[in-house]
Amino acid sequence: MRFLRSLAAATFLGATSCTNPRAEAATAQALNDAANEIGGLKNDVAQLQTDLDSLRSVVARQDSVITRIVAATPK
């Protein structure tokens, strides 16, 4: 079992040491692009959370207004 792990590690290292520099650059660029997109998504989620919090406060205010109107109406 240990031999198989060593063989797999050696094969992996051998395969990665012979890679094309252009392929490595393309992979690095793709990872950089993915990281930028993830950062953008984080910003979008933060903005959505802010908008949701704002909407919750508006709904709470409207709910209290409706409650006061209902309490003030004669029955």
Tell me what you see in this structure:
With 75 residues, the protein is an all-alpha fold. It has one domain. 91% of the residues lie in helices and 0% in strands. It is built from two helices and no strands. The longest helix is centred in the middle third of the chain and has 52 residues, at 21-72. The chain is rod-shaped, with a radius of gyration of 29 Å. The relative contact order is 0.05. The mean pLDDT is 86.
Strand content: under 5%
The H-and-E topology, N to C, reads as HH
Q: How would the global form be characterised? A: rod-shaped
Report the major sheet: none
How large is the radius of gyration?
29 Å
Provide the number of structural domains: 1
Q: Helix tally?
A: 2
Mean pLDDT: 86
C-alpha end-to-end distance = 83 Å
Helix content: over 70%
From the helix content, strand content and strand pairing, which structural class follows?
Answer: mainly alpha
Number of strands: 0
Uncertain regions spanning at least 5 consecutive residues: none
